[in-house]
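User: My collaborator and I are trying to settle a disagreement about how two of our proteins should look. Neither of us wants to argue from intuition anymore, so we agreed to look at predicted structures for both before our next call. Could you fold the first one, then the second, and keep them clearly separated?

Assistant: That sounds like a sensible way to settle it. I'll keep them separate. The first protein:
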Amino acid sequence: MKTIKEKIAYLRGLLEGGNLYGKDPNTKVFWDHLLGILDDVAESINALGTNQEELAEYVEAIDSDLMDLEEEAYQDEDDDWVETDCPECGEPVSFEESFLYDDDVQVTCPECGAVVHRGDSFLDIDELEDFDDEEEEE
């Protein structure tokens, strides 16, 4: 694949070698200015490409450093999490391990809302309202 500068040089060679400037002397001046502008644009594009590559390397280095920092900062906390699959939709659900030992906690799937874990003493508001309705009917 040819670079932009190579394409401009090819165009310049066609114009000069084929005598495509025509009879008007201003036409040559026009094409020379136009090709000069194209040369400047090509240099700017090359500089932008170089800057973008340097920036991409810099961001990658920052990302790597941040990942190392996160691993160090959250190293102990990662051990306190449980991951299980939702019984309804199969999506993985993560929650703190301490919820397994808390009788007043219910963990639901963030995708479908299905109950993934419920403590033994958990009182659901909807169930409580149903219970109140049954008492009123009696």
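The second protein, kept apart from the first:
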Amino acid sequence: MKLKLFFLIGLILVITQTGASCAPTPQSGLNKSIDKAVKGYRFSIFNWEVRSIFGEIRQTWDDRNLSANDSQQVIDYFSDTQQNTLSPSQTAAMQKKAETIIGLQIRTVLRQNGIINPFDSIFGVSFPPIAFELAEPPHLLVISPRNQIDRIRDVLLLQNLTTDQMNQLENQVEESGYSALVVELGGLGVTYPTFVNANSSLHDVLNAATEEWVHQYLAFKPLGFRYVLDLLGISRSQDIITMNESLAGMVSSEIGQQVYDKYYSSYFPATTNPPPTTASAQGFDFNATMRQIRQNVDAYLSAGQTDRAEQYMDEQRDYLQTQGYYIRKLNQAYFAFYGTYADTPAYTDPVGTAIQNIRNQSSSLKDFLNTMDHVTSVSRLDKLAKK
């Protein structure tokens, strides 16, 4: 518990100090548009941390007798919340227990994979400590130039935004000549405890909770530290974002599946059905279509045809809706955000392929993580991928 408290207080101080020392970006017009648009809608990490610190300490004490083997309590929580049979107080109590148990399970599997440090054997906890909250994460305002796909600014926004408010925020930023999109996040790792969307399935919660922890783990490594500098606006790099998100996604996918197999697979009957695909009975493949759209947009923008690229994206958004896929807004900011995740159809960057090659060459997940967490350039990544 002392280590968790130390980490939480330290995180608050870091956020406060670094947030106050960020150098201003050269896009003064953009900054003014952002400030005007998000006034009253910004999510304050500092305020949330101050409110959360005592709850985290209390939860650690209250749940000290829980173990990683208490999977039934997690199953009961997800089952009861889906059926909506509990009172708010009962839901809150079960939720806190589920968060603690899942955290213990993730820690156990991380240790089994050798992804540990000396603090594990001394204090019995992982560093950074694993703690997350099942709640609605903040929204994220993503901003990209119009003439290229590049994630140049992110702003955290409040959770309870309406669609009209999202559209209004985006329109105000776009008046400065940029592309903007308000994204609903599945998780957030820049807070402690981290956010994991409470409406997610058990499998998705395992993956998301692990992924947000991996981001915090990487923050103490060269690659993750560069990502922190990017988040603070001190040293922007789309390649660093892509490497971090891709690495965290790959590691969390493996760990999340191992946690599920170890603690939950026995609760659910095995299925012989093939894994779901994005191809419909009529042969429509969403992933392939989205990748083609992204490639065509890149071609239009490279040729300087910005207006045509935007018209094309509007047309394709309408077409996707006729195929049963609703995307509220398809623009440069959409691809700038989703294009940083190597496992999404919006992704076309070769960085993800290089990282996957390194994973294939690695003898273990620990070896893969230890190799990647020191990579801070695409040139270094390419050299490692070609070994």
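Some points you might bring to the call about the second protein. The two ends are 43 Å apart (CA to CA). The chain has a mean pLDDT of 83.
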